[in-house]
Amino acid sequence: MPTPSESPLDRLDRPLRKLRISVTDRCNLRCGYCMPEEEYKWLPRSAILSFEEITTLVDAFTRLGVHEVRLTGGEPLLRRDLPVLVRMLAAHPALDDLALTTNAVGLAAEAAFLREAGLGRLTISLDTLRSERYRALTRRDALEQALAGIEAASRAGFEGIKLNTVVLRGENDDELAELLDFARDGGHELRFIEYMDVGGATRWSREAVLPREEILARIEAAFGPVHEVDAERRGSAPAQRYALQDGTRFGVIASTTQPFCGACDRARLTADGHFFTCLYAREGLDLATPLRAGAGAQDVAELLRARWSGRSDRGAEERLGMEGRGRLADAQELARDPHLEMHTRGG
Ligand code: SAM
Ligand code: SF4
Ligand code: SF4
Q: How much is the pTM?
């Protein structure tokens, strides 16, 4: 681990601890809150980082204090040979947490290989348990595959699987209790996520957001009183955790109405090697060009240090105060700069 003097703080005194890596911008679903358009412009294949390049960049990040890595996308399971990358990263001595966020559609075939390669934790996105609704929300008919993926992950030995549900008013907000029952029965922890106005969410509106209080009210209506747990241990974790009367835990990620930028210690890396210091940041730092020109992990670490030391992002908090808050970018702007897309920068 780097010493505190090697590990930079940003301008708001936040360290860099966590990294999300998008391993592909492609996806096999078209969730309406993430990829609602008909056409997408993909990153050129030649620009996509190789596993060796990703590993070198991760090494650079660990020199600044990163010790948790989450693989994401697009849909990360679409990246061929993902377990090979998992094995390479799991071997890094400075990483003590290696996780994956997936829609689980391709997980049945991969779960055991990922586990065996050293993947520690899984987060699975699931917004409904109804086939018709799944098709409407994702524009693909894949609920059965996703459910089979979740089962396979349990069988493969993954424990503490988290299920993420983006709550959309009028679309799945009548299903919160069923989803929580499903998670409880499977031994998983469900987290409800407020709909965010990130790049890609071109249909976002304030009215479609179900704020945390309303989410909790619906859970209480179905299960009785809930109470907050582990508040003192929350740290920089985005989810506030709650317990039902029977002890079942669940979380709420109130990123839209109660953002947590003050404790944000995470950065993002796109599949083509652009480093972003905030989910809402307009400008990234291209790490692929220096890497492909011969820079090593220590050279990249110096670039990262300079960028992190100058960081003052608090995107979600700034948007909270905006008059007439609306979508971050329209479809034309996103087509001009796919790096603004949630599916490119990894959520
Ligand atoms: N495809 C994988 C998946 O869906 O789990 C990984 C990538 S996806 C971009 C990562 C996370 O971002 C998912 O949990 C998804 O629900 C979330 N997400 C995408 N758009 C969102 C939005 N507008 N508001 C809230 N969460 C969003
Ligand atoms: Fe849905 Fe994830 Fe694909 Fe976005 S990247 S469309 S959230 S499955
Ligand atoms: Fe961190 Fe930016 Fe999200 Fe705030 S909006 S929590 S600074 S990534």
A: 0.96
